[in-house]
């Protein structure tokens, strides 16, 4: 190989050396030749130092971005200069290797001079860069406006609250953790899980935690093919082919090629094997794929082995009022009397967005009298009687949770809780007594077994967001859930539970199977009304009772008295206590 390239390089190098020797001290030029190996080795050492410094800077930049900081301009410029210098180093090293192959065609001193000189120049450049790395201050600075603000964090539908802020950051931190790939977000129906999950997906992409974010709804009766199609659509993969539909394994293989993808599975009711049923690589299959699921059942998070479980709670009173005031258009409203009513209505909603949103929409622009009527109906637990508020948009989420309960015993335990006063802390042992007296759990011949079943039902209800834990063996109902439970109890013939708050009673209660008297009136209870189907009767304090009140209660199995006695004469009516 004649190597014309080497001849040309030799001629050019010698000429350059002669020129330099004429105008520059000869000793310096000879140093380039004599110290060639030292210069090349020193260059490689400087390259390693620069690469290490650049990597440390990249780690700092990543940490700053994770903390939602903006990166300083000089830091970005320094990173760019380091990247370019390291890239140029690759070119210089290739040139050294290429010239080595020309040793047989060119005197050793000629190419050593040129490359040694380039190496010294590059060493000087890198030293200057390393000095700048040493002088570098903080790499990032906070966003000019405080984060999070409601405008930045929230979409139009998103309800900003302390709970949602806490849940948001918990999920974001979990998404950053390389050891976590399955995150569960749970809370009662209507609390805002879907909107929060969508906001997390949007922000996670803006924060460059993921290259792609996929969102799909699972629902109570999941259509797995539709879920696969939606996921495949997001990643540009067609589940259909000429021979038919692609398999879960093919989707799994395709998703494994995605280096950083977040899949949000919204509204899951039962545990799903994501790999076998859908084709989602999770766990050791693919570190780059993470799943965020939302559910109203805490048990789903456990069953699907979520490494991080986040609960979304209701709004507090101030947050509920802020939302209500904004959505109902009361910000600039001058009528203080309406604002007072609105504030009371917002409190009655108990911080549950699914109740606030229908109400603020229904009352927006209404007169004082309409606001007053709405408050009366809400106070009297007649939410669905408010104009423009229908059952579907008031209770649809809660009804789905109730209907999903697997057995009637658990549903009955839930409805028994509705017979207690609003905001009452319900002692679980009272429910045990009622269940035992009503023979609620068939085949149970000991109260110990019934107690175990009742406590299991209570756990199911708490994990479904239908009951709230408030201490050792005590639970309570969210105000809106309490209204919903009374609505269900009174509207379904197979249940027919209800509460009496005012006397006298009307005839509509005659077909009820369970009644709770919550009235503060000291009037004597009505005589001879007749409750042929009544099985459970709860009587409050300071109520006058006579034996005649129990006449006609042939089916009565449980009678709970509070701070009062019942006349033995009542037992002459052959009740089934």
From TrEMBL:
Presence of the UniProt keyword Repeat in the record: yes
GO terms of biological process kind: defense response
Domain NB-ARC residue range list: 166-329
Top-rank taxon, per record: Eukaryota
A matching Pfam family: NB-ARC
Keywords: ATP-binding, Coiled coil, Leucine-rich repeat, Nucleotide-binding, Plant defense, Repeat
The keyword Ligase appears for this protein: no
An MF annotation (GO) of this entry: ATP binding
Annotated coiled-coil segments of the chain: 33-95
Gene3D superfamilies per record: Helical domain of apoptotic protease-activating factors, P-loop containing nucleotide triphosphate hydrolases, Winged helix-like DNA-binding domain superfamily/Winged helix DNA-binding domain
Name of the protein in question: Disease resistance protein At4g27190
High-level lineage: Eukaryota, Viridiplantae, Streptophyta, Embryophyta, Tracheophyta
Protein's gene: LOC107903560
């Amino acid at each position: 190989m004649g190597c014309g390239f080497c001849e040309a390089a030799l001629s050019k190098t010698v000429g350059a050396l002669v020129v330099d020797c004429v105008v520059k001290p000869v000793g310096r030029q000879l140093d380039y030749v004599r110290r060639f190996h030292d210069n090349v080795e020193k260059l490689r050492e400087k390259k390693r130092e620069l690469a290490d410094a650049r990597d440390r800077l990249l780690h700092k930049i990543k940490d700053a971005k994770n903390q939602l900081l903006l990166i300083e301009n000089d830091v970005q410029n320094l990173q760019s200069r380091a990247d370019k210098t390291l890239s140029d180093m690759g070119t210089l090293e290739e040139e050294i290797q290429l010239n080595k192959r020309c040793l047989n065609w060119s005197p050793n001193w000629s190419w050593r001079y040129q490359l040694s000189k380039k190496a010294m120049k590059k060493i000087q450049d890198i030293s200057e860069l390393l000095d700048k790395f040493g002088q570098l201050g903080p790499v990032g600075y906070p966003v000019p406006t405080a984060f999070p603000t409601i405008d930045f964090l929230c979409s139009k539908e998103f309800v900003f609250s302390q709970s949602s802020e806490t849940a948001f950051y918990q999920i974001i931190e979990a998404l950053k953790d390389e050891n976590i790939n399955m995150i569960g977000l749970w809370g009662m129906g209507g609390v805002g899980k879907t909107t929060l999950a969508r906001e997390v997906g949007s922000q996670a992409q803006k924060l460059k935690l993921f290259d792609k974010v996929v969102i799909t709804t699972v629902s109570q009766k999941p259509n797995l093919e539709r879920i696969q199609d939606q996921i495949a659509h997001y990643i540009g993969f067609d589940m259909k082919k000429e021979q038919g539909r692609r398999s879960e394994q093919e989707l799994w293989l395709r998703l494994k090629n995605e280096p950083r993808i977040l899949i949000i599975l919204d509204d899951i009711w039962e545990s799903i094997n994501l790999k076998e049923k859908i084709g989602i690589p999770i766990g050791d299959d693919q570190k780059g794929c993470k799943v965020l699921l939302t559910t109203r059942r805490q048990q789903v998070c456990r069953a699907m082995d979520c490494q991080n479980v986040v609960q979304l709670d209701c709004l507090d009173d101030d947050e509920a009022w802020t939302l209500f005031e904004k959505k109902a258009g009361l910000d600039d409203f001058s009528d203080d009397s309406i604002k007072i009513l609105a504030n009371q209505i917002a409190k009655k909603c108990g911080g549950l967005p699914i109740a606030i949103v229908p109400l603020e929409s229904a009352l927006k622009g209404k007169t004082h009298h309409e606001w007053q009527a709405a408050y009366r109906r809400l106070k009297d637990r007649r939410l669905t009687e408010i104009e423009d508020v229908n059952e579907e948009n008031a209770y649809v989420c809660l009804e789905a949770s109730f209907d999903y309960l697997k057995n009637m015993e658990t549903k009955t335990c839930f409805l028994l809780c509705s017979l207690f006063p609003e905001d009452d802390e319900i002692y679980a042992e009272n429910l045990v007594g009622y269940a035992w007296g009503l023979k609620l759990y068939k085949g149970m011949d000991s109260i110990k077994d019934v107690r175990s079943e009742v406590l299991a039902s209570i756990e199911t209800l708490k994990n479904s967001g239908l009951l709230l834990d408030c201490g050792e063996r005590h639970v309570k109902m969210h105000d809106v859930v309490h209204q919903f439970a009374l609505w269900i109890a009174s509207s379904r013939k197979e249940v027919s539970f209800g509460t009496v708050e005012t006397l006298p009673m009307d005839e509509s209660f005659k077909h009820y199977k369970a009644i709770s008297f919550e009235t503060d009136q000291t009037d004597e209870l009505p005589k001879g009304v007749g409750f042929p189907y009544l099985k459970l009767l709860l009587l409050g304090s300071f109520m006058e009772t006579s034996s005649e009140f129990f006449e006609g209660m042939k089916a009565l199995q449980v009678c709970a008295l509070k701070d009062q006695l019942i006349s033995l004469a009542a037992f002459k009516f052959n009740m089934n206590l």
